[in-house]
Amino acid sequence: MIQINNLKKVYNGVTVLNIDHLEIKKGESFGLVGNNGAGKTTLFSLLLDLIEPTTGAVKLNNVQVNESEAWKPFTAAFVDESFLIGYLTPEEYFYFIGELRGQNRASVDELLIKHKDFFNGEILNKKKYLRDLSKGNQKKVGIIATLIGNPEIIILDEPFANLDPTTQFRLKKIIKDLADDKDVTILVSSHDLAHTTEVSDRIVAMHKGQVVKDIYTSEETLKELEEFFAV
Amino acid sequence: MFKKFLWLEWKSFTRSSAFATNVALKVLMILVALYFSAMFLLLGVGSFYIIRESTSVDPLIIISQFAIYYLVFDLLFRYFMQKMPVINIRPLLTLPIKRGTIVNFALGKTAVSFFNIMHAFFFVPFSIVLLIEGYDPLGVVLWHISMMALIYSNNFINILADDKDAIFYTVATIIVGLGATQYYGVFDITPYTQVFFHGLYATYYLWVIPVALVAGIYYGCYKLFSKELYLDTGLKGKHEVAQTQDFKWLNQFGTMGTFLKNDIKLILRNKRSKTTLLMSGLFIFYGLLFFTNAIEIYQGPFWSMFAGIFVTGGFMMTFGQFVPSWDSAYYPLMMSQNIQYREYIASKWWLMVIGTTASALIASFYLYFGLDTYLMLLAGAVYNIGVNSHLVLLGGAFIKTPIDLTTSKQAFGDKKAFNLKTFLISLPKMLVPMALYGIGFYIFSPTAGALFVAVAGVLGFAFRNKAFAQIEKIYKREKYDTLAAYKQKN
User: How much is the ipTM here?
Assistant: First the structure.
């Protein structure tokens, strides 16, 4: 589903990302862990063609992202608040995304009802624009919006950050459900090793722009990762 | 502490992306500034003698009579042109810096603005000429100090008006009221103000009033901003009660309708874009200056066409200039969502077409000035749609200034939708239709002139797909740079 070859990003002579080869299969639930500056967000930005690779290429479903726009219909992402439109209400934002993804109102509403618990009564019909919501509530909107239109690839950068404990539990449930769906490839990055091992069946650890661990989750994974990151 | 602030300012200036990409523009702005300085300097030295030669009345009396207009015009000019000081305050709040120091710095920063310095180029030479001509030295000095105090009062009134809409409307009402009453000969304020302004020179005590005024207004600004220097007041921005709107009638246009809906919300829900809309509304009436022959130098076919382009293209120029910057806050979303470039550009184009068409319809009252005038305006509209719309979209790809829609309500925010930069870039878009109309007008007739311009517009329209393809290419080429520049908040 996702193919990365010789991908390199260099800023002013400093290599911030260097991945020879990485392949993510369809239906995989992929977790990305690493310290600050490990290159997680850089990798996601490259996957979404938001930054230009110095060398190499990313292919989503055999579409090279910096040459064609054909990857956009089946890919959804929430990286940060720059994926939200501040002057819209949450409902308007969901419908906007829905229309872009060819969904009618009814199917968007259905999805919203399904995730009513996740919103915890703080999002819908609050007569607030997205810009006036708290960071955590903004995040909830962004995450649910990526589910609209049944995308085949979902990319979430640090989805657990800024969320309250209850919402974190609910988010884990959502991601696990998606992981069970064999048509959806989901990529999640996090600083939290426990969360990631819980929701992902494959975990890649990055350090200074390189892949240093690539493991399929098992009982020992968390311990292995903790040992790796312990100083 | 001020030295530290200056250091911060210098860093933010030299490290902004606008500085790197717009050096040519900066040079142009400096040239314009130099030009204005030179003009004021000449005016300062020359006006005394010119007035004395032509009227044989004491020049200081004449100047005093018109001083009120000078100040009023200055205030208007500032309101539309002067940018508010942007100082990044949030990170400073918890540092051991007195609040007063922060406010004083932000206000003090406006004092060294070109909008104030410019006047010194007029008043300093004028005062020197007064001294040479044997006016009472102490009186001249007091007059000079008073005038500069009034200029600075304008500076701070502008800050207040910019922050509090109520103050803007009050000041605007007084100005319009005085202007109207004088125009219709009901009440002329200048004889009274003349006494005052001349009194600044003639008496040794009247200077207290302007100096007290500037001190008072400064204190007002200081109080206001000190009070607003909390995260939950002035630095927070207002929370409006949001209303979900549908615009269902736009659904029939498919994806285009989706974008248009969004753009309409963008325009209606953000202060910055609302100001832009207001500006473009004013442009519709801009032609009145030309067609009523109110201003002598504005006569002749070239200038009529100039007006024609602005009357129908005001929205296009002011709004279109900043495509795609309007979407800067969520540009990564637009670039990764299921949106094809072509659709995105086309929807912005349609928005400008709608704006231009609406302007042309509202402008139908120009029929009062004759069919030729309105035909010329329509030709301008066709040219705007056919040619300028593409140029505007093209230009937008290179203006990588992020527009901060969300913080436009903040006390120290930058909220001017119209600035010199935008204006300068608009200039070339006028010259072609002006020339075409002029040629047709002089060789054949006004109708032929309008026809020439309209044909140019239709030709441009015929190349629409080519132009779009080209624009799309440039947007794609600039995509990564644009994304990087938008990341950088002012």
Answer: 0.88
Q: Are A71 and A65 in contact (CB under 8 A)?
A: yes
**Residues B141, B123: Cα–Cα separation, whole Å:** 11
Which residue of chain B comes nearest to A104, CA vs CA? Answer: B251
Average pLDDT over residues A136-156: 93
Interface membership of B194 toward A (CB under 8 Å): no
pLDDT score recorded for residue B429 = 79
Domain spans, chain B: 2-228, 249-486
Sequence-ordered list of residues with C-beta below 8 angstroms from that of B234, at least 6 positions apart, any chain: B225, B227, B228, B410, B411, B412
SS3 A208: coil
Q: How far apart are CA B312 and CA B359, in angstroms?
A: 5
Q: Does A97 touch chain B (CB under 8 A)?
A: yes
Mean pLDDT of A199-225: 88
Cβ contacts from A onto B, under 8 A: 90
**Backbone phi and psi for residue A24, each to the nearest 5 degrees, phi listed first:** -115, 125
Position B417 scores a pLDDT of 38
pLDDT tens column, B362-394: 888 888 888 888 888 899 899 999 988 988 888
| Per-residue model confidence (pLDDT) at position B406 | 55
Give the minimum alpha-carbon distance from A137 to chain B in angstroms, rounded to a whole number: 16
Query: With an 8 Å Cβ cutoff, is A85 touching chain B?
Result: yes
Where b means 16+ CB within 10 Å and e means fewer, B100-137 reads eebbbbbbebbeeeebbebbbbbbbbbbebbeeeebee
Task: Please give the single-letter amino acid code of residue A41.
Answer: T
Q: Say whether residue B270 is in contact with chain A using an 8 A CB cutoff.
A: yes
Distance CA B227, CA B221 (A): 10
> Does A132 lie at the interface with B, CB-CB under 8 angstroms?
yes
Contact between A105 and A112 under an 8 Å Cβ cutoff? The reply is: no
CB contact under 8 A, A129 and B269: yes
Q: Assess B483–A contact: CB distance below 8 Å, yes or no.
A: yes
The winner for highest mean pLDDT among B61-65, B353-357, B434-438 is B353-357
Q: Tell me the one-letter amino acid at A223.
A: K
For residue B215 the two structure tokens come to: 């001190």
Strand partners, A189: A32
Nearest by CB to residue A50, choosing from B262, B336, B405, is B336
Question: What pTM was computed for the model?
Answer: 0.72
Does A92 contact B338 at a Cβ distance shorter than 8 Å?
Answer: no
Share the mean pLDDT of chain B. 80
Q: How far from A19 is each of A27, A43, A209, B466, CA to CA, in Å?
A: 22, 9, 8, 39
Residue B267 token pair: 């325009």
d(CA B460, CA B465): 10
- A86: nearest CB among B239, B336, B405: B405
Q: Specify whether the backbone of A15 is left (phi greater than 0), alpha (psi in -120 to 50) or beta.
A: beta
Q: How many CB atoms lie within 10 A of CB B213?
A: 17
Residue A203 bridge partners (DSSP): A31, A215
Nearest Cα neighbor of A179 from A28, A31, A1 is A28
Interface residue A70 vs chain B (CB under 8 A)? no
User: CB–CB of B239 and A51 under 8 A?
Assistant: no
Distance from the A203 Cα atom to the nearest Cα atom in chain B, whole angstroms: 24
Q: Which of A16, A49, A50, A155 to mutate to test the interface with B (most CBs of B within 10 A)?
A: A50
B252 touches chain A (CB under 8 A): no
Which stretches of B270-370 are DSSP H helices? 271-286, 288-291, 301-320, 331-336, 341-362
CA-to-CA distance for B405 and B273, rounded, in angstroms? 8
